[in-house]
Design a protein that fits this description.
Largest sheet: 8 strands, parallel, barrel
Helix content: 25-40%
Shape: globular
Number of strands: 10
Strand content: 5-15%
CATH superfamily: Aldolase class I
CATH class: Alpha Beta
Number of helices: 12
Distance between the termini: 66 Å
Number of domains: 1
CATH architecture: Alpha-Beta Barrel
Bound molecules: ribose-5-phosphate
Order of helices and strands: HEHHEHEEEHEHEHEHEHEHHH
Protein name: 3-hydroxy-5-phosphonooxypentane-2,4-dione thiolase
InterPro entries: Aldolase_TIM, DeoC/FbaB/LacD_aldolase, DeoC/FbaB_aldolase, FbaB-like
GO molecular function, one term: fructose-bisphosphate aldolase activity
Length: about 300
């Protein structure tokens, strides 16, 4: 029976108020479908547009990396401070409490270990399992200039097609071989290829010269990769510069979990990424938190 609850006069139709049409502000993501946007908004804070992802997927090719030997002890306590976790499905199922409700960026490529040619990767996860695990994104390595460049690019396009079917974004990680030059020219090429062929966001390395040209020529968000452990001030400075030069976040591993105080470090990184704290202030914050912990 139509509209018997109250009379038309009592209902609120706001006939003179045009419906709001909010813009989805994440870079290059405005034309994506609802599910994609929902998942991306779990990773990138809708307030700041930025993210601090904690990368702990190293074991997929190098086994129990320093700091990741017992992830139940070293990593689970860090989960509340990260915006998203990047890891493998094995660690997700075996060690991450499902009620931590953290957005997951699931490592979805693999194959070779550190003993072999790393670019010889294949897709290592079925999209159905990504859905089953309720992940917010899937990730893989793309080896531009590597021996198996084409295979890794095709892995990505296949994963993008699968992700698009179910509304799951893909993060491409621009891998760098030991002998390859890490400069803005290379990263412009690698990031742009990933975005052109469908990646929804790209993880890449910071370079001191010309990083802004890397972010500005990539039409989707870039998150900065951490790399090997460096000093806290140096790592905070790198994150600060990356954000100021157009990155939408960071995806850091060793510089957080190998730090003397990983909780203090992830909090300091987060302040840099979300609050534009300068590296010097962020280091002060790190040292304060570290000394408070010692006194406890
Ligand atoms: C990079 O190639 C992989 O995704 C790594 O396993 C990891 O994400 C690297 O993190 P970080 O260099 O910050 O330790």
């Amino acid at each position: 029976m139509p509209e018997t609850d109250v009379s038309k006069e009592e209902k609120k139709f706001y006939e003179d108020v045009p419906q709001k049409n909010p813009v989805f502000s994440l870079k290059g993501s405005g034309s994506l479908d609802w599910g994609m946007k929902d998942r991306l908004s779990r990773i990138f804070s809708p307030k700041t547009g930025h993210t601090v992802m904690l990368a702990v997927d190293h074991g997929y090719f190098q086994g129990p990396t320093t700091g990741l030997e017992r992830m139940d002890i070293s990593i689970v306590p860090l989960i509340p401070y990260a915006d998203a976790l990047m890891l493998t499905r094995g660690i997700l199922r075996s060690l991450v409490p499902p009620d931590s409700n953290k957005p997951i960026v699931m490592r979805s490529s693999g194959g070779p270990s550190i003993l072999k040619e790393l670019s010889n990767e294949e897709i290592a996860v079925d999209i159905e399992d990504a859905i089953r695990m309720n992940v917010s994104a899937i990730a893989l390595q793309v080896f531009i200039g590597g021996e198996f460049e084409t295979r890794s690019v095709h892995n990505m396009t296949k994963l993008v097609d699968a992700g698009l079917r179910y509304g799951i974004p893909v993060m491409a990680v621009t891998a760098v071989g030991k002998e390859m030059v890490r400069d803005a020219r290379y990263f412009r090429l690698a990031c742009r290829i990933c975005a052109e062929l469908g990646a929804h966001f790209v993880k890449t390395y910071y370079v001191p010269e010309g990083f802004r040209t890397v972010t500005s020529s990539c039409p989707v968000p870039i998150v900065m990769a951490g790399g090997k452990k460096i000093g806290e001030l140096e790592a905070l400075t790198m994150a600060y510069k990356a954000i100021q030069e157009g990155a939408s976040g960071v995806d850091m591993g060793r510089n957080i979990f190998q730090s003397e105080n990983p909780v203090a470090m992830i909090k300091a990184v987060s302040a840099v990424v979300h609050k534009d704290l300068t590296p010097e202030k962020a280091l002060e914050m790190y040292n304060d938190l570290k000394s408070k912990k010692r006194k406890e």
